[in-house]
Every structure is written in C-alpha cells, then in structure tokens.
Amino acid sequence: MELSKRERSLVKALTTRNGRRRSGCCRCEGVRAVRELLDHFPQLVQFTVATERGLAALPGVVPQNLRMVDEKSFEELSDTVNSQGILAVASIPPEPAEPVSGDFILALDQLGDPGNFGTIIRTFRAAGGKELWYTKGSIDPWGDKAIRSGMGAQFGLNMRRFETLDELAKRAGDCGYCNFFIADPHEGESCFTCPGLFDHSVIVIGGEPNGVLGGYAPAGKVIIPMPGNYESLNAAQAATVIIFESVRRKLAGEPC
Amino acid sequence: MELSKRERSLVKALTTRNGRRRSGCCRCEGVRAVRELLDHFPQLVQFTVATERGLAALPGVVPQNLRMVDEKSFEELSDTVNSQGILAVASIPPEPAEPVSGDFILALDQLGDPGNFGTIIRTFRAAGGKELWYTKGSIDPWGDKAIRSGMGAQFGLNMRRFETLDELAKRAGDCGYCNFFIADPHEGESCFTCPGLFDHSVIVIGGEPNGVLGGYAPAGKVIIPMPGNYESLNAAQAATVIIFESVRRKLAGEPC
Questions:
Q1: Nearest-CA distance from B193 to chain A in Å?
Q2: Model's pTM, two decimal places?
C-alpha cells in the first residue's frame, strides 16, 4: 500500500513531543530499532515505511502495514543524515504489566539529554538489565532522538515513569527492592567494592546527591573512583561503569 | 582590550577544520575547558574572550590577553545554546615531547564522531590515563565539538596522531608497549579477566577487528561481555568499560 497523506503528516509530527502526545505514537527509525520493536511489541506497530534497501536489511521479516517508498521520499521523512531506509510508527508502549524483576533497578532522575538517556538505555539492555525507571523532568525516552540513540532498546526493557523520585522509591520498596544508592560525583562508597550494590537495589543516576528517597529509606552514596582527579563523568559514562560492574561481579561469581 | 575585528573572524573561522589548519589554532569554549587549557598549556593561549559572568566563573584566574565582551557579542561567537561566557583561542598543542608513560596506551582508530571522541578523552582523563593516540581518519580532536565534548581534557593528555595503525603500533613497540589488544564486538577474551590487558599495552577501540598491527605483532582480541545479547555498545561506552576496568584492577591490587 502507498503511504497516505495522513500517515506522512503523522510521521513528521512525531518528531515533536506534542505530536507524540496527541497521537499516542512514537517513531522508530533504523534497522536495529525496528527489529527491537518487532521482536518485543509487534502488536503496537501502526505502519512501517521502507525503501527496497531498508527492507533488504531485515531479511525474513514482514513488517506490518508496509508502505514502500522511494529513497527520495524516505529522505524527506527521515530525521537522520544517512538513513537506513526504514522506520516504523508505533503506539507508545503502555506501562509494563509484568512484575518487577532483575537484579537491580536503574533509575534515571531528571535526565534531560536524549542522547545520554538513549545511550544508557542501550547500554543497560546490552548488559542484560530489565527495569529502567525514570522520573518526570527527564527527557521523553519515546522521542525520536532517544529512540535513535537507544537503537530501540527501550522496547526491550521495562520502562516505568514516576512523578517523583519519592514515588519511584516507594514502588521499588513495595516490590522488594529496598536498597537505595545514588551515584554521587563527590563522595560515597566505591562502586567497585560497595556491598549489595546490585542486590535487589535501586541505583539512581542524575539524582540530587543529598536526596532522601521518600522518607522511605535513606540512600547510600556510591562513587566512581577517578584517579585523574577530574570531577565527574557525564551521566551516560557513569551509568556505563556501574552497569558493567554488575556484569563483572556476576561473571566472576562474586556476591552481587 | 577590545576584541578586534580580526580576532572575531578568527574565533568564527575556528569552527571549521580549514580555519584551524590555516591558523594552527583551536577554540576552547566553556569554563572547564578553559581551565584545563590554562592548567596545562597557558603559553599556547592567543587570547581569551569572556563576559563578566564567564570571568566570575574562574575565580583567581587571569587569562592571557583578555577581551571582555557583553553577553550579546559573546552569543554571536558561541557555538553552544547556553554559553558559559568564556572561550579561549589557543595554538593547537604540538606533539608532546615528553616520553610515553602510563600503564597503557588507548588508541582510537578512525573514530569519526566528535561526541564519541570527546567523551572518550574526558573519560580517559578522569580515570588518570595519559597517552591517547589516534589514527588519521579520526575526527580532529582539536575541533570545536570534540573539545566541548571532552571539556578540554585533551589538553591534559598526551595526544599523538599517526597516519596508520601500523605506524602507531610500531611507535608503541619502540616505547616498550608491546601487548596489543583490539576491542572486538564479537569475540575475544573478556575484558574483565584478560591477563596483562593494562600491562604496557595498547588497546585499540574502533579498529578493524581482523587487523594485524604492522606485521609488528598480532593483536589479541578483547570483548566486553554482554549478557543482554544485544550486539555492540557504541565506541564511547566500550572505551568506558575498558578504561574503568583498569581503575578497578589497580584499586583492588590485582595484577594489571
């Protein structure tokens, strides 16, 4: 089928938060992102737009409601410089119904940069993480840039949004995740030796260093040792160090 | 003194590679980047442009050849949305004369993205790294974006550029760095257990996985374990995991 005028407008509108809010949809561009979407939420796909080239990059896959377009038409829709010739429009996934699982919850507090947010999502997914929670004031992880930076890894995680860090902490506690840690650039226990860091815990990145979570529990501070004495890493790098320390401990058979 | 017309043109020209090549200068914007520059290469500063606000953010520092401007004039020169009101124009540092030192050399091969390059520079600096080498085909680390992403950390490292990975390997070998590792997304020894990974070694990020370095030495492959089974991390995240594994081993007193 051809891409209708209405669909074309929708694809363009979805680059704005307003467009996503009105339609309840997001756009998911690139081979990897579309594959993640189809693997995890095929039922959410409204339609897929592809060129011959884009479709060829997904062998054996028949995307729903496929609209074939030529390269020139695709470039007009694409938000990237070198497009991969494929994008899908999907309903934004609802809050996951499945119970909270995994060793620890990664919580992003008021993380404003879509590139950082996307990178953390992708890294957490690569490390086998499951629960990625975030607070209001963070960038929309279903935005175009965050999905591209995350390469659609958001579709493979349980993404849960909370109004405040307090509410997040309460929910985590209710689910049995009772150890709270906040990554702090200045002080705290080393992420390489901190006991129980990944044992049914919540690790907050980007949070207020002196925050107390919900009156619910005081948070331990965890620091990434920096022998270079060069202040803080950016949020994505800090998250990466912590996430892969969990991988290392697990593979080494050390207590988590 | 006032900012001259010639200086104003130079500041603008330095956002392009051509402008940097012609003048041999780079521009260094933001409080942190300017501080790094002044700490390590004050003699390279040609002039500094600042607003009252920008200068106030560097207490106790008197930048060379200071040109005070108002906020509006600064915005016209700035390459950022929310400027910090300070930038310096400096000669691009020459190849460092000091001998090669540090536990390992981090080598970036044909790394094309300035954000990634800058992030790796900053992360390596934070971890106490010293030698950051790169090959032709990489983005210019003295470009505006790379300096901003790196927050000027390039001024605190020994940055050395090579025409090819072969030449890089030869030079490293001549300096006693004889163990070569290439970060590979698909196979290799785990970066968490690989012996000698940081023992007078060269670790290549972004290199051709099957490359042999200069006929000089075959490179070992090192992999970042990814339980999520989600292909590769981006170059900056991969570098971050490896860089901080070196910090962890050192702090734990494990063999490097």
A1: 9
A2: 0.91
